Every structure is written in C-alpha cells, then in structure tokens.
Amino acid sequence: MAIMIFRSIIIYACVLVVIRLMGKRQIGEMQPFEFVVTLIIADLACVPMSELSVPLLHGVVPILTLLIVHFLLCFTARKFMFARYLLTGRPAIVVSPRGINYKELKELNMTLDDLMELVRGCDVFNLSEIQYAILETNGNLCVIKKSEAEPPTREDFKVKVSQNGLPVNIIMDGSLMKENIIMAGIDDKFIKKCIEKAKIKQVKDVLLMTLDNNGEVFIQGKSANEYYTFNMKFDGGDRW
To answer: Is the pTM of this model over 0.90?
Structure first.
C-alpha cells in the first residue's frame, strides 16, 4: 500500500509539472492538439499508479516525451502558418449580416441546436441582434452585436451610427495573410502605406495588422509595445 501511495504522489507531481509547463489554458480554451495530448497524459498516468507490476519509468518517460512533442508542435505552429492551420484549424463565420451560414455549419458538423446553444451562452437570444458570430478554433463562440442592440442602444438616443466592422488579419507574425488580402481587395501599396504610417519599416517587423469593413486599421510592431489605430479608405469593405 505504501508503495502505491508513493508511486501515485510521484506520478501526480510529474503530471502537475507537465500541465503547468504546457501553459495556463483551461480545458475549454485548448486547441485540438493540446486537448489530445492532455487526454493521453491522463491515460498514461493511470497505468503506473494502479499497476504495481508496471515500472514507474514506463509512465514518466512517455509523459515527458509528450511534453517535448507538445513544445515542438507549438513551435511549429508559431513559425509556420500552414502548420498552424493544420493543427488548430481556422475561425469560422457562422452568422453574418446575411444570416446563418448553413454551409459552414455542415462543414463543422454542427446542428442549428448547437449554434443556438452557443449563441445563448453569449447572452443573445435573438439572431437578429447579431452582426457577426465567429466560432473560434477552441470551440468558443464570439458574437459582435449590431450597434443598435448594444446596451444602452444608440437607437434610444436617436444617434445615427455605422455598423461595427469585422476585423480580418492582414499580417500575423510578419507573414502576409494572402487569402484575407485578396478578400479585402487591397494591394501591397495599401499595406506599405499602413506600415509606414505606423513607423514600421518592413512586413516582417509587424506583429499584427488587422483591417475591418469600415477601414479601421490596427497595427503593432514586434519590437514595440505601442500599437496604432487609424482609418484607411478602401473599396473592399463589403466583401465580408
């Protein structure tokens, strides 16, 4: 009995250290590959804790191996955009000003009941209040309400407002998001002008640049903790 208790404490300490090293994400915030690693670690930890015939190292070594694999996957996802999309997928717009994107729901294997449950979890009970609803790669739903549905509503004060814009990523970690650039209908000159306005020399020096339907630009460089926001005129704001 004492040996089993001792082995359980060691395995528990090992798993606790590994989970802490993996980061502070909660279960609901994990990416798919992180969740898979966590499940396997939990299964590996049970065997040496309950089976005294199994050497302790047969549980510790695989757990530490998975930790190394996790770090390698995270590093690959940070450095290579295609690997990031392969491991985590992409956010999906499931509700837009045009209504529910049923084609996207089918690709995500979601039912309308699933969508409505997530929407209610965002304290929204009427789809007509939603400007955009985005299903993140970790399964969480983010909702951008229509301007007149935000509390307190501008409509109550008879204030004319423009609809909230949906930002898309133009540059991430120094890499151009070509699909989003094409969708937005912008070119290299537009991007260069934005970079120069933010006092950044090259695309590779940009940490993040986003552009929304209304032309609002957010941009921050890798070497500075300061970000810039400004408005740029362009013609592609109605494409998403």
So the answer is: no
